Amino acid sequence: MAQITLKNLAHSYLPNPSQEDDWALKEIDHVWRDGEAYALLGPSGCGKSTLLNIISGLLIPSQGSILFNGNDVTEAPTAQRNIAQVFQFPVVYDTMTVRENLAFPLKNRGLDAGIIKERVERIGDMIGMTDQLDRKARGLAADAKQKISLGRGMVREDVNALLFDEPLTVIDPHMKWQLRTQLKELHRQFGHTMIYVTHDQTEALTFADRVVVMHDGRVVQIGTPDELFERPEHTFVGYFIGSPGMNFLECSVEGETATVDGNRIALGSDYGRPSGRIQLGVRPEHVKLSKGEGLPATIDRVEDVGRHRIVRARVLGAPLNIIAGEGEAIATDGQTVVFEPGRVNIYSDDWRVEPHGSSVGRRAA
Ligand SMILES: Nc1ncnc2c1ncn2[C@@H]1O[C@H](COP(=O)(O)OP(=O)(O)OP(=O)(O)O)[C@@H](O)[C@H]1O
Predict the structure, then answer these.
(1) d(Cα 8, Cα 26) in Å, to the nearest integer?
(2) Residue to probe by mutation, ligand 1, list 22, 48, 201, most atoms within 8 Å of CB
(3) What is the pTM of this model?
(4) Whose CA is nearest to atom 6 of ligand 1?
(5) Burial of 177 (0-12, 13-18, 19+ CB in 10 A)
């Protein structure tokens, strides 16, 4: 297992990048801790594959270096990096049995037959294919083949890192949950450094110890699922994580009070006088329906999603989502909303402002 260091790393696919937009991966300086499970999360085109390909050795970065346990591997080919990779679509040998496919990376390294048998059967059990170990891979459905790919990725204990690139795309929804749980279990048992690329927040938040959120070629936050939810460092994280995402209102801030269109909102912390374009961010879960207290709200519609309701409203001309419990009354007239003071975040030019006297949260890159 390895600690992976990214040093002033950046990449452009252009020969002479001259402006910020020319960089598919903007500069990142970060240490990925040995033995942690990370998810690289972001929408299509944000630079996830570019970063993963630099780590795996498929791409040499235009700037900076990459170190495995302190050794510079920036120019080293994939084969020399001792990593296991699982891709979006299955890569299996059709003429081999499931057992032979799983054993392949171990045989290649000349491991003892007894160890191979034991390890293959354990992984076969984890991917739910014990009964199919001795059948040929040919003819198996795509999701079964992808389970073999996952198993083959996980079969070696001595890899520096395990890299997964959207590995559950072809897997059935109910099996996805099961495999994610098994991956997590495997991580608990063996403590591999794992990097899992996905654009699906549920996948990222359930799999990873830490989620690396990317937006427009930049790492905007690296944090635990709880940190991403409670203290998004960038408005993009607030918007991207959560369902629905964070609400934002343009405002001005002085000390512990935000003002929106002349309406004062208590923030619960002292923010001084931040400059730039100021926004207040509040999660739908932290907006409370009230009658008379707080800001006036117009209800557009209510969506019942089972465990709770999503109230689509307008507050001071801006759209605002509220999560309301099953029993909560929603007024058609005179409805107001209150923001839980300690759960509000303030943003200046899209970056979170740290309240005075607090030491939590920091920019990731
Ligand atoms: N080989 C390439 N040549 C030129 N530009 C590229 C190349 N590969 C990626 N890009 C560009 O770099 C940016 C980042 O792409 P990248 O594939 O890393 O994003 P991604 O987050 O992995 O997206 P997806 O989930 O769609 O794969 C995009 O603007 C993309 O068009």
Answers:
(1) 9
(2) 48
(3) 0.90
(4) 13
(5) middle
Tell how strand 161-165 and strand 83-86 pair up: parallel
Domain ranges of the chain: 4-230, 244-352
Nearest ligand 1 atom to alpha carbon 25: 14
d(CA 55, ligand 1 centre) in Å:
15
Give me ligand 1 centre to Cα 80, in Å.
25
> Which listed CATH number (1.20.120.140, 3.30.420.200, 3.40.640.10, 3.40.50.300) goes with 4-230?
3.40.50.300
Length of the chain: 365
Sign of the torsion angle spanned by Cα atoms 149, 154, 157, 161: positive
ipTM of the complex, rounded to two decimals: 0.97
The string of pLDDT tens digits covering residues 48-60 is 999 999 999 999 9
- The CATH number of 244-352 is which of 2.40.37.10, 1.10.1520.10, 2.40.50.140, 1.10.600.10? 2.40.50.140
Residues contacting residue 12 through CB under 8 Å, at least 6 positions apart: 22, 23, 24, 25, 62
Distance 50 CA to ligand 1 centre (A): 6
DSSP code for 186: H
Q: Give, using CA atoms, the residue closest to atom 30 of ligand 1.
A: 45
Over residues 248-298, the pLDDT tens digits come to: 999 999 999 999 999 999 998 999 999 999 999 999 999 999 988 999 999
Q: Amino acid letter at 349?
A: D
What's the 158 CA to ligand 1 centre distance in angstroms? 30
Report yes or no: 211 and 225 within 8 Å, Cβ to Cβ: yes
- Neighbour-count burial of 305, counting CB atoms closer than 10 A to its CB (0-12 exposed, 13-18 middle, 19+ buried): exposed
241: nearest Cα among 285, 201, 214: 201
Who's near 163: CB < 8 A, 6+ residues apart?
52, 55, 56, 83, 84, 85, 86, 194, 195, 197
